[in-house]
Write a structure and sequence with these properties.
alpha+beta, elongated, 4-stranded mixed sheet, 23% strand, OB fold (Dihydrolipoamide Acetyltransferase, E2P)
């Protein structure tokens, strides 16, 4: 807020500053008012000082909320939720301050030789910060893209575990092969087909690229519960849509990514090497398995170097629940690359 101009710029520290005109709902007139107020009165001290000094006719509620959502005030405070909660009172105070100025009222500061009334920055409301998901969702709303992170960042291990493709790789596919992609659905529109059935088309994106999604009527009905809340990452399962240049997925299954371990795994496989295997490691593994009971069948593959591999199928009573914690505990015993889910 104290450095950005109308368009993208680079400051003296060679840092890129986002152009305020690129923020949705912030027009050129609003940006010029912000820059003029900053040049005249110096850096803004907070949202109350900002609202009081800019032209309220140009920088209205919608503009101020968009600036909060995109992070324009982050250099002043990192709690965007508190800033959003202060918008109402900041605007009300700004109206009073500007009315006083237009009426020509003289402040004590003026009488003492100052250059005009200075807004005392009020404390922000004491509210919980937005969750990371809310933070990114509002950012996307204001900018059209994520800038400080991606909703999938928190699910990196699940993405690695279950995704077989991504938005960029889809562009290279020429056959309708099965794919599983972790992504967020950015928009979804329902349509009525010629036969009177309801289908949906829209767009999803991962960290690599946006891509088209199509959900036909049967799949739409089967996944309607998951699709009730689009404010979460999903594992999208279906076939690559190679029609009309491709870069899309014909969706069969929509799984909330947070539930991927429960829904997408039927088996847990452990691959061990007999060489150097200690009895204490087997005992620790047994204890580890007892801490993660579930419905997935477990298999231990014992690799005997230079000879063969023996597979032990554990009884159903020793079924497991896949999780990052299980992987971490096994890694602590044997090292990485031991556990896979299928």
């Amino acid at each position: 807020m104290n450095e950005s101009d109308l368009d993208f710029t680079v400051n003296k520290a060679h840092q890129i500053r986002f152009g305020l005109a690129a923020v949705k709902n912030v027009g050129e007139g609003a940006v010029k008012s912000i820059i003029e107020a900053r040049q005249t009165g110096g850096p803004f001290k907070g949202i109350f000082d900002f609202a009081s000094r800019v032209e309220s006719r140009k920088v209205n509620r919608r503009v101020l909320e968009a600036l909060v959502k995109c992070g324009a005030f982050d250099s002043l405070t990192d709690n965007r939720a508190a800033l959003m909660a202060a918008v109402e009172s900041a605007l009300e105070r700004a109206v009073r301050d500007q009315a006083d100025r237009e009426a020509g009222q003289t402040s004590m500061f003026d009488l003492l030789g100052g250059n005009g009334a200075k807004t005392v920055e009020a404390p922000l409301p004491d509210v919980e910060p937005w969750s990371k998901e809310e933070h990114l969702r509002y950012e996307k709303e204001a900018l059209g893209f994520f800038i400080t992170g991606h909703p999938l960042d928190h699910y990196r291990r699940l993405v690695e575990r279950y995704s077989t493709s991504n938005g960029e790789k889809l562009k290279e596919l020429s056959e309708p092969e099965e794919v599983r992609i972790a992504a967020v659905i950015t928009n979804l529109d329902k349509k009525i087909t010629k036969t009177g059935k309801t289908m949906a088309v829209g767009q999803a994106e991962d960290q690599f690229s946006p891509f088209k999604i199509t959900i036909f009527s049967e799949a739409l009905e089967a996944n309607k519960e998951a699709l009730e809340n689009l404010d979460q990452p999903f594992l999208l399962v279906g076939k690559a849509d190679v029609r009309e240049g491709g870069n899309g997925v014909l969706i069969d299954r929509v799984v909330p990514l947070v539930h991927a371990d429960k829904v997408c795994s039927n088996e847990v496989h452990f691959r061990l090497r007999s060489t150097g295997l200690a009895k204490t490691q087997i005992e620790r593994l047994k204890a580890c398995l007892s801490r993660h009971p579930g419905s997935c069948r477990a298999f231990i593959h014992m690799q005997i170097p230079g000879r063969s591999e023996v597979t032990f199928v554990l009884p159903p009573r020793l079924g497991l629940q896949p999780s990052d914690e299980l992987v971490d505990e096994v890694r602590a015993i044997f090292g990485g690359g031991i556990v896979t889910f299928q």
